[in-house]
Known about the structure:
By secondary structure, the protein is mainly beta. It has one helix spanning 4-7; strands spanning 10-17, 22-29.
Amino acid sequence: MFSNELFQNMNMENNVSGDNNYINNDMNVDVNMMNYGNGAGPMNSPVNEGVQEKCVHRTFFHEVPHVCPIHTRIINHHVYKHTYRPQYTCSEENTVSNVQCGSCCQFR
């Protein structure tokens, strides 16, 4: 059926990558330990191991904007305070008087 030379020391590698995890599975298969029914001996069944489960927790943050309307009303109050203060005025009057001590003709 199959030649054992094709499967001897066969390495199988499976790489899976994602955003938050990295998984690398290596499987070494030695076919010399198995017999595929070619009449050389009893056929060994593969041993199924229990399933290993890996749990990856990922957290996604989403921004959800909410509109909160706020209205501001401004009321201006104008208060007029009437005050009274005296305002003083002053007036000045100038008078001119001429004093005649004679004339220039008198001093010749």
